[in-house]
Amino acid sequence: MTYRETYEIWKNALKDTEYASDLDRIADDEDLLQDSFYKEMEFGTAGMRGIIGMGTNRMNVFTVKRATQALANNILAHGDPVAGVAVAYDTRKNSDLFARETAGVLCANGINVFMYDTPHSVPQLSFTILELKTTSGVVITASHNPPEYNGYKVYGKDGGQCPVADSDRITEYISQIDDMFHIESMPLDEAERNGLLTYIGHELDEIYFSKVEALCIHPEIMKQQADKLNIVYTPLHGTGNVPVRRVLKDLGIRRLHVVPEQEHPDPAFPTVKAPNPEERQSFDLAVELANRENANLILATDPDSDRLGVAVRNPAHEFVILTGNQIGCLLMDYVLSQKQSTFVGDEFVVKSIVTSDMVDVIAGHYGVELRSVFTGFKFIAEQIKLSEQTGKGKFIFGFEESYGYLQGAFVRDKDAVQAAMMIAEAACWYHSMGRTLYDVLVGLYEKYGWFEDLVLSKTLYGKEGIEKIQNAVRTLRESYPGHIGAFKVLAVRDYLKQERLDMLTGKTEPIDMERSNVLYFELEGGRFIIRPSGTEPKLKSYLSASAAEKTEADSKLAQLKTAASALIDQLTK
Ligand SMILES: O=P([O-])(O)O[C@H]1O[C@H](COP(=O)(O)O)[C@@H](O)[C@H](O)[C@H]1O
Ligand SMILES: [Mg+2]
C-alpha cells in the first residue's frame, strides 16, 4: 500500500471526528504526508518513539491505543492481568493524555492498572513495577528528544525495558490489529469504580526516596561536607525536579539553586534546543546561574530523569561539562573504591560496548568482572535479572556513555536521581580530602591511562534520512576500509554478522552475542564504532583514542575526529 492510500484510509475513518482537520492540514505537504504514513512506528532501543501528529509513523492516540492493545494481548497470553501494569508519564506534550489512553485500553481488556496522576520519572516507574510486583509497565516519554517527539517505553515484570523477544512479540500483535480506529477503551472513572484502575499515592515516592538515600555509602561525611557544595541544578522542565531536590535535601545539601527558567514543566521546552544533557547548550542557563551564585557543581537531568549531565570547575575556575563516560568512570571508581573491602569475588559491573574502554581498566583494577552489552539500558537490566536467576554474580554498578548510571538494583533502568545523589556524595567525600571532582578525574586518567572518547551524531530527517543512515552502515559493511585516516584497522567486529575479522591474518571468529546493527573497528591506538540510533534519526559513531600521556591522546582523538567526520560525510552524501 502506498502512503497516499494509507492516508486516505485514515481520512475516511476519521472524517467526522475532531482529527479530520489535522489530516486535512497535511494533505498538501507531500514530504510530511510521506513521512507520516510511509511506515508503522517501530519498537527501537527504548520502545516506540516518534513525532507527535497524525499518521501510522507518528505518536497519536491511535498508534498509542494500538500499541497498548498489542501489549494487552501479550499480557493476556503470557503475563498476569491481575498483577497488572504500572503507568507513568513525563512532562511532554500529550504525555498525560497518552497515559490515560493507555490505562483505558488496558482496563477494557480486564487488566489492572496502577497509575501515577502527576508526572513521574522513568526510574520511579521501574521501581514501582518491582515494588507493586506488576507484570509490566509503561512510561509515556520521549526522554531527551526535541519537543515535537513523544514515546512509549514498555517494561517487563523485572522492572527493565522489554527484552527484544517481548518487543518483537508486541510488534507481531500490532501487525495483527486490522482496525486501529475502534480499539475498545474504558472510561477511567468507570475503571476506578470497578477496581481496575488504582491511582498510586505518595507513599511509593517516599519508599523510593528512602531507597535512593540508603545507597549513600557515607551519609555522615555527606552531612559534614554538605556546606562545601554549592549546586546549581536544572531539571530541564522535566520530572527530576521533585525527586532530585528531595533526595539531596534529605542528605543535607542546603545550597541548591534550581534554574528558575527550567524549573517548571513546559512541553515546548522553550529554553533549550532539545532537553538533552548530552548537548552543551542545555547547560547555558545553568552555567550563567552557577557563575552568579559562585556554585561549584552543576547537575542536569533530562525530562524523564534517567540521564544525568554534570559540570565541574577546573583549576582556572571555569566550568567543564563532563561527558557521559567521564561521569560514569568517576562514579564507578568511587563506588568500587568504597565498597572494595566488602567484595567476596563474585561482583560484576556492566557497560555497553560503545562505552569507554577505561571502564575495563577500572574494573580490572578492583578485580570485578566486567560484562559488555549492546546499547540500551535494558541489556544492563537483563544482566541483573540473569544474575538473580542463576545466583551467579552480584551487581555493583552499570553505566552507558549516553549519560545513564545505576547503582541500586531496586530500579532496573538508568536513574538520574541515584546518579545525582552519587555524584554529590562523591564530591563531598573527595572534598573531605581536599580534592575536587576535577582533580579526581585527572587522577583517574593519570592512574588508568588517558582514554579520550567522543560521540559524533549526524541527524538526517525523514524517509530519505533514515535510508541514508541505513545505507551508510551497509556501505561500510560491504567493504571495510584498511585505514581510518592515519589509523590502521586491525580488526572489524560486525555484530550483525556476529563475527570478528582479523584484518592482519584474514581469520574470522564468531561473536557470542545476539545480532545488532553495529560495526566496531579496532584501530591501532583507538577504536571507531558506528550504528544507527534506535531512538532518534541519527547516525551515531563513537570514537576513542588512548595513550599514556594526555597530549598524545588528545592529538590522536583530534586526528580520528577529522578522519571519521570525512568518512561519515562521504557515506551520507
Ligand atoms: O533516550 P533514553 O534516555 O531513554 O535512552 C535510550 O536511548 C539511549 C541511546 O540509544 P540510541 O543510541 O539507540 O539512540 C540508550 O542508550 C538508552 O539505554 C535508552 O534507554
Ligand atoms: Mg531519558
TrEMBL record:
PANTHER family: PHOSPHOGLUCOMUTASE 2B-RELATED, PHOSPHOMANNOMUTASE 45A. This is Phosphoglucomutase. Its EC number is 5.4.2.2. CDD domains: PGM2 (cd05799). It comes from Christensenella massiliensis. Pathway: Lipid metabolism; Glycolipid metabolism; diglucosyl-diacylglycerol biosynthesis. SUPFAM superfamilies: Phosphoglucomutase, C-terminal domain, Phosphoglucomutase, first 3 domains. Residues 507-550 form the Alpha-D-phosphohexomutase C-terminal domain. Belongs to the phosphohexose mutase family. It catalyses: alpha-D-glucose 1-phosphate = alpha-D-glucose 6-phosphate. Residues 41-178, 221-311, 324-448 form the Alpha-D-phosphohexomutase alpha/beta/alpha domain. It comes from the Bacteria. The lineage of its organism: Bacteria, Bacillati, Bacillota, Clostridia, Christensenellales. It is an enzyme of class 5 (isomerase). GO terms for molecular function: magnesium ion binding; phosphoglucomutase activity; phosphopentomutase activity. Keywords: Isomerase, Magnesium, Metal-binding, Phosphoprotein. InterPro entries: A-D-PHexomutase_a/b/a-I, A-D-PHexomutase_a/b/a-I/II/III, A-D-PHexomutase_a/b/a-II, A-D-PHexomutase_a/b/a-III, A-D-PHexomutase_C, A-D-PHexomutase_C_sf, A-D-PHexomutase_CS, Alpha-D-phosphohexomutase_SF. Transmembrane segments: none annotated. GO terms for biological process: carbohydrate metabolic process; purine ribonucleoside salvage. Its cofactor is Mg(2+).
